[in-house]
Amino acid sequence: MRETDLFDDESGATVFRDVIMLALAGFVMLVLLLLPHLNPRAKTEDAARSPGNVVVEARWPDGLNADVDLWVQAPGDVPVGYSNAGGAVFNLLRDDLGHMSDLTGLNYEFSYSRGVPPGEYTVNVHLFRNHTAEPVPVTIVVSAKGGAGESAKQLLTTRVVLAQEGEERTAFRFRLDDKARLVSGSVHDLPKPLRAVRTAARGAPESAR
User: Fold this and answer.
1) Which of 103, 131, 148, 172 is a Cys-bridge partner for 123, taking CB atoms 3.0 to 4.6 Å apart?
2) How high is the pLDDT of residue 207?
3) Tell me, what DSSP letter sits at residue 53?
């Protein structure tokens, strides 16, 4: 083999290696450029999993065969609960019937709002049906966020015990400003019926479901 042929072979191998290295470097650079754009998408998905500006949750012991109803009322709106699952502000996202039509054994209901109208909010719980001989403890949590880009912050939590079927208890009455901030000194639990008012307006019998 002539010296010039050997030189040509080595030169070709060097060029080939350079091309491979450049292609690999370009691929790595492309991946690095794309990485920052993946995080906002994850944040968008997280926001989609947390609908609503004001979120009210009610939970009672899992596996307990009791039907507890959450009722909420926003300023200037109608009471929202199982017999009226949507208003101008709030929507009831889940109506839990205890063991009926429930494959999970989890006991919870929650409502969420579209927007945060300033004024007084009311949160009630009602024991529609209890197949146990024990009182039902219910934990209520209220969270709120001012805008879509914000994270919801827990504002209030309490525990209410419902002793008999048909009992309705006011867990919270409170005021929010237009930034979803809790107004100082506005929280109390002075009873305000919501379910009774709503069912009376609809002309529904007490046992209707």
Assistant:
1) 172
2) 46
3) S
The runs of H, that is alpha helices, within the chain are 3-34, 39-48, 195-202
The answer to whether 44 touches 91, Cβ cutoff 8 Å, is: no
Distance CA 34, CA 18 (A): 24
10 Å Cβ neighbour count for 117?
Answer: 17
In Å, what is the CA distance from 106 to each residue of 23, 135, 167? 54, 18, 22
pLDDT tens, residue by residue, 23-68: 777 766 776 666 665 654 444 444 344 568 999 999 999 988 899 9
Give the pair of three-digit tokens for residue 204: 């529904």
Q: Which residue matches tokens 């929280």? A: 187
User: Which two structure tokens, joined as six digits, stand for 58?
Assistant: 């009610």
The predicted model scores a pTM of 0.71
78: pLDDT confidence band, cut at 50, 70 and 90? very high
> How many Å apart are CA 153 and CA 132, to the nearest integer?
34
The residues near 208 (Cβ < 8 Å, ≥ 6 apart) are: 83, 199
- Block residue for tokens 């079927």: 165
CA distance 62 to 101: 14
* pLDDT value of position 45: 43
* CA-based nearest residue to 55, from 89, 83, 79, 84: 89
